[in-house]
Write a structure and sequence with these properties.
Length: 316
């Protein structure tokens, strides 16, 4: 969101800016689809399209074009294989194509619409072509859709808004740390607890939504599907078991439980007695998070984030 706010501030200050967007990448390219960089007339730079000498040369080109009356829209292919035609000067054996769009005050409504979409938790699509930089409220099924036929015949569409939601069940100190980290990872964050006047829940300024609920109804608050990730971390074993029993037979992208191996073994034994299958239990990530000997809430949050990112990126 900061990226779009910076653009809006520059445009409202009557500056022209270039937005550089990676619209295609192959191999070990340092820039990935959707990477963006803002280059403003006052030499303000924000974001990245991959870094290194390649990025430096693209920024210089954009700054030079901003000084001219005619600031064109175009795409530029970068081949990272050393000193060759269209080479970027990098040697990482990848390729990427970067789109250059010059924005001015006429684009303020477009940027405001993008910011409104993000602030309201809505979804839409950024649409780039050789002649346009626009936004629509029609969301995409996938994160990106693009096609490059020639330098003058191409399009790039990108989903704007939250694709994934993390549902945290338990509003304690770990829930706060997990909330803070996952909003930085562009997840929509919803947190639940069953306790009134819980200090850590009331002071959680990071989660997009906070709800005090009866855990017996938890399944009615979390939609099934590949956009739903669940981290169970209530304050007691019985609530962990209750929540898991309500969710275990449903279809989610990720469901994990915080706790010791001893506590979890007891939970598995009870769930098996209650009629759940071993196959269903095996779908649960528990103890949640990768093993990095984490101790503090912040360290636990990092271990959980690493595991969820792995699941999200490997199961696309």
């Amino acid at each position: 969101m900061k990226f779009w706010k910076h653009i809006l501030n520059k445009l409202q200050d009557n500056q022209k800016v270039y937005v550089l967007t990676v619209i295609e990448n192959f191999g070990s390219s340092p820039g990935r689809k959707g990477f963006k960089m803002l280059v403003a007339q006052n030499k303000f730079i924000y974001g990245s399209v991959g870094g290194g000498v390649m990025e430096f040369s693209l920024v210089e080109e954009a700054q030079q074009l901003l000084q001219e009356n005619n600031s064109p829209t175009f795409i530029k292919k970068q081949i990272h294989k050393g000193n060759i035609k269209d080479g970027s000067g990098m040697i990482c054996s990848g390729e990427q194509t970067v789109a250059f769009h010059c924005l001015d005050a006429n684009h303020i409504p477009t940027i405001q619409n993008i910011l409104n979409c993000l602030q309201n938790g809505e979804k839409g699509a950024l649409n780039l072509t050789p002649t346009s930089f626009s936004f629509s409220n029609k969301s995409l099924e996938n994160q990106f859709d693009y096609q490059i036929n020639t330098t003058d015949d191409w399009f790039f569409k990108e989903h704007i808004g939250f694709k994934e939601t993390l549902y945290i069940v338990g509003g304690g100190h770990v829930g706060v740390a997990v909330s803070e980290l996952f909003i930085k990872l562009d997840f929509h964050v919803v947190i639940f607890d069953n306790r009134e006047n819980l200090n850590t829940l009331e002071n959680n300024k990071f989660a997009h939504q906070k709800h005090i609920i009866d855990y017996n109804n938890i399944d009615s608050y979390i939609p099934e599907g590949n956009a739903s990730y669940i981290a169970i971390m209530t304050n007691k074993y019985t609530d962990d078991k209750l929540v898991l029993s309500k969710l275990l037979k449903n279809n989610y992208k990720f469901i994990g439980v915080l706790g010791s191996k001893a506590k979890l073994k007891t939970m598995w034994d009870v769930l098996l007695q209650d009629g759940f299958t071993q196959e269903e239990i095996n779908t649960v990530y528990a103890p949640i998070g990768i093993s990095i000997k984490s101790e503090t809430p912040e360290e636990i949050a990092i271990s959980i984030a690493a595991q969820i990112i792995q699941v999200k990126n490997l199961r696309k």
